[in-house]
């Protein structure tokens, strides 16, 4: 499955654009504490009508474990026809391992998507303790090397000093292959979903496209479904101002 993340307020025209491009999966990152839940429901219904596979995510969650359990008790009954991703990028692995069985108890349908601590990074997989549930899908996010993909990020101290970092050497390409292969090996026999990968717009476009193509190609070689981060933010493959795809990135995702 070829997917893209649709963050923020999603209009039906956005779904038409990504469908026409060739994507067949959309991941919807939702900050539920502030979200218009009726609007989310309308977006999910519109995506399903268009034949998309939909991953519904809990994003930027600021509550405690009890609040997350309560949220999933509600969401599990409210939404049908989608795949649930229980928590985007948990940080504390020990906290998440202890909470995960409690969350799974209140989610009525399978499969569901679960990722490791430390922001869903590949290196955090060995610390993830999965309950004995055959219908779990493991997810990772891939932004390696971080100084390349996040150069100039306004929310990271010192990232301005990374601007100009390039990418594309053979050792760098080999690292992508090795890290994704390691993730697949850890998840086996469960499927692995590459839920996010992308580069900030401050990175050189030629290198962004080369990195994106390499990650996407390796994911497909390994049989993974994937979702690019993202549609139209500062990582976006689509420019909302010009209403055009950034062709090097689109080609990297489909070429």
TrEMBL record:
GO terms for cellular component: cell surface; extracellular region
Keyword Protease present in the record's keywords: the answer is no
Q: Which residues form a coiled coil?
A: none
Boundaries of every Glycoside hydrolase family domain copy: 15-231
Mind listing the UniProt keywords for this protein, alphabetically?
Glycosidase, Hydrolase, Signal
> Which N-terminal stretch is annotated as signal sequence?
none
> InterPro entries of this UniProt entry?
GH (IPR017853), Glyco_hydro_5 (IPR001547), Glycosyl_hydrolase_5 (IPR050386)
Family annotation (Gene3D superfamilies)? Glycosidases (3.20.20.80)
| A Pfam family reported for this protein in Swiss-Prot or TrEMBL | Cellulase
**Molecular functions per Gene Ontology:** beta-glucosidase activity
Q: Which domain of life is it from?
A: Bacteria
Q: Which GO terms describe its biological process?
A: glucan catabolic process
Family statement:
Belongs to the glycosyl hydrolase 5 (cellulase A) family.
Record-given protein name? Glycoside hydrolase family 5 protein
Per the UniProt record, the source organism is Solirubrobacter ginsenosidimutans
């Amino acid at each position: 499955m070829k997917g893209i993340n649709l963050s923020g307020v999603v209009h039906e025209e956005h779904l038409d654009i990504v469908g026409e491009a060739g994507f067949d999966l959309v991941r919807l990152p939702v900050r539920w504490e502030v979200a218009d839940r009726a609007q989310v429901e309308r977006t999910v219904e519109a995506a399903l009508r268009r034949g998309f596979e939909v991953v519904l995510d809990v994003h930027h969650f600021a509550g405690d474990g009890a609040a997350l359990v309560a949220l999933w008790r509600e969401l599990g009954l409210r939404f049908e026809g989608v795949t649930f991703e229980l928590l985007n990028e948990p940080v504390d692995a020990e906290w998440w391992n202890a909470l995960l069985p409690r969350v799974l108890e209140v989610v009525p349908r399978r499969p569901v998507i679960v990722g490791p601590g430390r922001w869903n990074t590949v290196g955090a997989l060995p610390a993830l303790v999965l309950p004995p549930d055959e219908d779990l899908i493991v997810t990772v996010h891939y932004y390696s090397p971080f100084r390349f993909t996040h150069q100039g990020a306004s929310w990271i101290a010192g990232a301005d000093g990374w601007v100009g970092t390039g990418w594309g050497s053979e050792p760098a390409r080999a690292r992508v292959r090795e890290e994704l292969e390691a993730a697949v090996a850890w998840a086996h026999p469960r499927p692995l979903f590459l839920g996010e990968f992308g580069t900030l717009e401050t990175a050189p476009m030629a290198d962004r496209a080369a990195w994106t193509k390499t990650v996407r190609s390796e994911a497909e070689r390994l049989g993974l479904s994937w979702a690019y981060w993202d549609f139209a933010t500062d990582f976006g493959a689509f420019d909302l101002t010009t209403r055009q795809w950034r062709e090097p990135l689109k080609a990297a995702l489909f070429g």
